[in-house]
Structure formats: structure tokens, C-alpha cells
């Protein structure tokens, strides 16, 4: 059972929870964001279209969001700690079973479904418990916790590429699954604090934001690698794009979290500005035609993505209030699942229509810069 309700400590053991959540973010969403490095390998192995291969990530994203209400309910019934540990075991199972790589349906069920459920059961309670431990410093605490996604993605880019080159994509999946077992250790550190509550129906415009945002959030990281190949960029440079994305994303989160903590501007106004700027950077993507321009696009997108992610959960807490936050977070993620599910395949079909070499079944070799 969870502890009785009380005032958030805004510090103390809360910082241990923040560090644990930081690790969970890195071992879940950072893996998902860096999965683009496996995209070409899996596409080549099964000789499939980009839109077909992208369903692996689509299933992961959809289950990640669809599982959030279940994870929230389990947090209320049991504890955040228990759900996070369960998520770690599920994430490991998804990657470990993906190692067998029997066919695309198998990949959808393992690296897609099980991995998505593991991410959902880990991410949802981790980000939720941080909000319960903090009130005045909630924006900063959430920004620091979410920055784990960027810090790990910065390292995972070159690390995953090395794993693939040394052990193949199947062996790399197995090793990554083993690393994800550390989620269970993080879960043990998440000491229960807040009690349970129920959700009243509220947050329509915010729900629409969730759907539209999820449609595009994971598309750039997923297709950044094949897009760079299609522009003739050598594969030794492609992983650096993911590292650039992670680095500026990290900076955007911490800077926005620090500024939001000053309470000079309403967080919902900050979110509106961040969304406007990230949309602008996405619209400028067609101008990228070489490594330098693609790196610049990646930098702008990554920074404003970081500012968006740093505060959008804080805005949700402001919209519904903390007594209803757990259930609201689950419902919000459920609503977002629609966008997350259709976004990558739509992007894959768009790439095929534009006739990028790696967005078709005939995969060409990358050229050197």
C-alpha cells in the first residue's frame, strides 16, 4: 500500500527519486529514440519497405501510450515502485525475444509490443512519482528527470552503432535488453509517498495537443538515419546526428526547466512558444541537403523538442491538479496513442512517395561525404 497523502517534500529523498527517474527515462525512451540505428539493418534483413519496418516503432509507441492508463491504475492499487520493476522485466523480455528475429510479425510482438508495454510501465510511474515528490520545484525536477532521455541518447547513438557492428542487430538487441534490467534497480529506489485519487473529465484542447504532438515526436529520430543515407552522407557520420539531437535536447530541457522554475512566465505560455518553434524547425527540414544543413536542422529541432518535453507534463499537472494527476497522466497518454501509432507509418509512406533510396525495398549503400 502507498503512504498517506502529505505535503510534497520538495527535496530530500525526492532527489533520489529524480535520479532514479532520470535513469528510467534513459533506459526507456532514449532506447526508443535511438532505434533508428536498427531501422536499416532490420529493413535489409527482411527486405521490407520502410513503411512496413516502421510499424515496429509504431507498435512500440502505441503500446507505450495505451498502456499508460493501466500503469496508472496499477500505481494506485499497488505502488509506483512495483509497476516500474514490472516495466523493467517487460522491456528486457521484448528485446531478448526480439533477438530471435523470426519474422516481421515476431518483431511487432516482441520489440514492438512487449518493449512498448515495458516502456509504459516504467516511464509512466517514474514521471508521475517525481511530480508527487515536488510542488514548488516541480518544473525543474521534471526537467532534470526527463533529461535522462537526452543524456542516454547522446551515448546510445555511437554505442548502439558499435554494438551492431560487433554483434549484429540481433546480438545488440539482446545486450540492450540486459542493460534495461537496471530499470528494476531504479524502481526499488522509488519509495512510495502519495496516495491514490480518481480522475474527473477535464484537459480537450490539451488532449488534441497530445494527439498531434505524438504523431511527430518520434518521427525525426526514427528516420534521421535513413534520411541521411539518402542524402549521401557516410554512415560514420549518421550516429553523430543522433548525438547532436540528444545534446541540444538535454540543454533545452534543463534551460527550460530552470526558467520555468523562476515562475516568470506561465508554463502553458512557455509550452505554446516551444510548440510554435519546433513546428517551424520541422517545416524547414526540406531545405536540408547535406550533413551540415541536416545537423543544423537537428540542432534546432532537438533544442525545442527538449523545451517542449521539459514542461508538458508540468502543464498537465497544472491543468488537472495533483489529486487527479496519476489518472490524468494515464488518460492523456491513452489519447496520445492515436498520434503515436499513425505517425511513423505515414512518414514512411511519405518518404517512399518522395523516392528516398532507403524508404523503398531497394536499399542502396551510403556514399561518403
Automatic annotation (TrEMBL):
SUPFAM superfamilies xref list: MFS general substrate transporter (SSF103473)
A GO CC term assigned to this protein in UniProt: membrane
Membrane topology: Multi-pass membrane protein
Main location as per UniProt: membrane
GO terms for MF: monocarboxylic acid transmembrane transporter activity
Listed Pfam families: MFS_1 (PF07690)
Keyword list, A-Z: Membrane, Transmembrane, Transmembrane helix
Regions crossing the membrane: 12-35, 55-76, 83-106, 112-133, 140-160, 172-191, 203-225, 237-256, 268-288, 294-316
InterPro entries noted in UniProt: MFS, MFS_trans_sf, Proton-linked_MCT
Subcellular location: Membrane
Name of the featured protein: Major facilitator superfamily (MFS) profile domain-containing protein
Organism (species): Taeniopygia guttata (Zebra finch)
Name of encoding gene: LOC100227411
Amino acid at each position: 500500500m502507498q503512504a498517506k497523502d502529505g505535503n510534497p517534500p520538495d527535496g530530500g529523498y525526492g532527489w533520489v527519486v529524480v535520479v532514479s527517474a532520470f535513469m528510467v527515462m534513459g533506459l526507456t525512451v532514449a532506447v526508443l529514440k535511438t532505434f533508428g540505428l536498427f531501422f536499416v539493418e532490420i529493413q535489409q534483413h527482411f527486405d521490407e519497405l520502410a513503411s512496413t519496418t516502421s510499424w515496429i516503432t509504431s507498435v512500440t509507441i502505441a503500446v507505450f501510450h495505451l498502456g499508460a492508463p493501466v500503469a496508472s491504475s496499477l500505481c494506485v492499487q499497488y505502488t509506483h515502485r512495483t509497476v516500474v520493476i514490472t516495466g523493467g522485466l517487460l522491456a528486457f523480455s521484448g528485446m531478448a525475444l526480439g533477438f530471435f528475429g523470426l519474422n516481421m510479425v515476431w518483431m511487432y510482438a516482441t520489440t514492438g509490443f512487449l518493449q512498448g508495454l515495458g516502456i509504459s510501465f516504467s516511464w509512466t510511474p517514474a514521471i508521475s512519482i517525481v511530480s508527487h515528490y515536488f510542488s514548488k520545484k516541480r518544473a525543474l525536477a521534471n526537467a532534470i528527470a526527463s533529461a535522462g532521455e537526452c543524456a542516454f541518447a547522446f551515448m546510445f547513438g555511437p554505442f548502439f552503432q558499435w554494438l551492431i557492428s560487433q554483434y549484429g542487430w540481433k546480438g545488440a538487441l539482446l545486450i540492450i535488453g540486459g542493460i534495461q534490467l537496471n530499470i528494476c534497480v531504479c524502481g526499488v529506489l522509488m519509495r512510495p509517498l502519495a496516495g491514490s485519487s480518481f480522475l474527473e473529465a477535464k484537459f480537450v484542447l490539451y488532449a488534441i495537443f497530445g494527439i498531434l504532438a505524438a504523431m511527430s515526436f518520434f518521427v525525426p529520430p526514427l528516420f534521421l538515419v535513413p534520411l541521411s543515407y539518402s542524402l549521401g552522407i557516410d554512415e560514420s557520420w549518421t550516429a553523430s546526428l543522433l548525438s547532436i539531437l540528444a545534446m541540444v535536447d538535454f540543454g533545452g530541457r534543463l534551460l527550460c526547466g530552470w526558467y520555468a522554475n523562476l515562475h516568470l512566465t506561465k508554463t502553458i505560455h512557455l509550452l505554446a512558444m516551444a510548440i510554435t518553434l519546433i513546428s517551424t524547425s520541422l517545416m524547414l527540414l526540406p531545405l536540408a541537403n547535406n550533413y551540415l544543413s541536416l545537423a543544423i536542422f537537428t540542432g534546432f529541432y532537438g533544442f525545442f523538442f527538449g523545451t517542449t518535453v521539459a514542461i508538458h507534463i508540468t502543464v498537465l499537472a497544472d491543468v488537472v491538479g495533483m489529486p487527479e494527476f496519476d489518472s490524468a497522466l494515464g488518460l492523456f497518454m491513452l489519447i496520445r496513442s492515436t498520434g503515436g501509432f499513425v505517425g511513423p507509418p505515414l512518414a514512411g509512406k511519405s518518404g517512399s512517395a518522395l523516392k528516398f533510396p532507403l524508404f523503398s525495398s531497394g536499399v542502396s549503400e551510403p556514399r561518403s561525404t
